[in-house]
Amino acid sequence: MPSFDEVLKEAGEFGRFQKRVFFLLSQTGITFSSLFASVVFLGRAPGNFWCRIPGAADLSERCGWTLEEERNFTVLPLQLGNESVTGECERLDVTWDASVSCTSPLARYGNHSTGNLPLAPCHHHWVYEQPRSSIVSEYDLVCGNAWMLDLSQAILNLGFLAGAFILGYAADRYGRILIYLLSCLGVGICGIIVAFSPNFTVFLIFRFLQGMFGKGTWMTCYVIVTEIVGSDQRMVGIVIQIFFTLGIIILPGIAYLIPTWQGIQLAISLPNFLFLLYYWVVPESPRWLLTRKKGEKALKIMRNIAKHNGKFLSPHYSEITISNEKVSNPSFLDLVRTPQMRRNTLILMYAWFTSALIYQGLVMRLGIIGGNLYLDFFISGAVELPAAFLIIVTIDRIGRRLPFAMGNIVASIACLITAFLPEDIPWLKTTVATLGRLSITIAFEVVYLVNSELYPTTLRNFGVSLCSSLCDLGGIIAPFLLFRLAAIWLELPLIIFSILAAVCGLLVLLLPETKGISLPETVEDVEQL
């Protein structure tokens, strides 16, 4: 009986069929990256706003004030008394009722200087010039509630974390394509509910669920693409990252054209329903079918692949070698039970955590130029494009390990140099920091490929999902680490990033090289790498 890789070679390792499936599934990267970074535009600053005095709404309606006139009566008296008070988080501790004059609402307080009038913190009743532009104005995430905006992104990352465990496990047990399609349906439905959430609690619940299903779509499509191509073509796992970057580049254009946060949310969520059409064009992974003792279905799919690729499988291919490894429900113990699997798992978990922490930390620190939000965000995405092309050029010439290690080492050196460059050479600090961003992006993209190549088919989806969950943990920690340490010394986060990246660069050299090697089918295959 021929092995799966022998049959795949005869059917075509990257023919017309695989190219079509690859292109279709790659679109998932665009929607996933848009979800990943959407908080930048969903939570953008709402423009000018101020705290409304109790009773001011009724008085404004009775007096026929415009919003600007109401603001002048509300905020200007505050600023006359104290120039540092903006009227955003504090208001005059007064109440306006029917007895208040329309022309001079503060006249009832006699000769008291407005500077001597008592102030009260604002807890609600904010007025926004752009009331529906973002979730900040929709749910009053300002002043004492500003931390809730950070919470919304942390909740999304928690959803990614849950998706890595729950849907990664489900994809190994119930099939790749089934979980992919269910996840696409979940992202679309939850995205619509998020857009029309009546309150912030409902918003957070379904943003968590959207993150969970979003991670399911991204990780599962990545594994499917990796499993249907030959060992010499697995750099498609790197190319698929370009579509993630395209999503980052496209997102500011969507946000620029759509003025409301609900519109942006729907624009990045609704395309997931189109992916349900893949049910008729993307088959189940034949590698997975073999691990579930479904050799006949796997062979049928392989014959279909060969037909679309203009090839023909030999008639004696009536069966494909099926893994003799006992298939059970995957668990973390399966990933650390044997020496090589244990070493790979621990190093990959650290690599995911470090890459995410440094990547997000550098993005937040740089601010990319400053000024125009849409242009800055576009540039931040464009910076990542060279990373994928550099990997494509080197990955099949020098292997995986060296680019993986060098990406971390160069990022470490760049962070260290940036920390000690003088402030009066801003262009040089920005350039070196951008080099660090490019280098850690290379490491980030290589870890996707290496992770999928170092696990057997029976554990691949679960292993990739579990290890990449550390990426989500790094994403949760990054803003807190950055801002807490920067309060002590502005460049201290860069020192920490440098140490983490240097350690990672050395550790990944302990991983086996997977260039040109067939994907392992069993744990025994991994131990013999």
UniProtKB/TrEMBL annotation:
Cell compartment(s), UniProt: Apical cell membrane; Basolateral cell membrane; Mitochondrion membrane; Nucleus outer membrane
Keywords linked to the UniProt accession: Cell membrane, Glycoprotein, Ion transport, Membrane, Mitochondrion, Nucleus, Transmembrane, Transmembrane helix, Transport
Nucleus found in the keyword field: yes
InterPro entries: MFS_dom, MFS_sugar_transport-like, MFS_trans_sf, Orgcat_transp/SVOP, Sugar_transporter_CS
Pfam families, per the entry: Sugar_tr
UniProt keyword Nucleus present: yes
One GO CC term, this protein: nuclear outer membrane
Every Major facilitator superfamily (MFS) profile domain range: 99-516
Catalytic reaction equation(s): histamine(out) = histamine(in); dopamine(out) = dopamine(in); tyramine(in) = tyramine(out); spermidine(in) = spermidine(out)
PROSITE patterns referenced in this protein's UniProt entry, alphabetically: MFS, SUGAR_TRANSPORT_1
Primary localization class, coarse: membrane
Mode of membrane association: Multi-pass membrane protein
Record-level Gene Ontology MF annotations: monoamine transmembrane transporter activity; neurotransmitter transmembrane transporter activity; quaternary ammonium group transmembrane transporter activity
The organism's place on the tree of life at top rank: Eukaryota
GO biological process: dopamine transport; histamine transport; monoatomic ion transport; norepinephrine transport; serotonin transport
Segments passing through the bilayer: 21-42, 151-170, 177-196, 202-225, 237-258, 264-282, 347-368, 374-395, 402-421, 427-450, 462-482, 488-511
Similarity remark: Belongs to the major facilitator (TC 2.A.1) superfamily. Organic cation transporter (TC 2.A.1.19) family.
Protein's UniProt name: Solute carrier family 22 member 3
Species assigned in the record: Chloropsis hardwickii
Gene giving rise to this polypeptide: Slc22a3
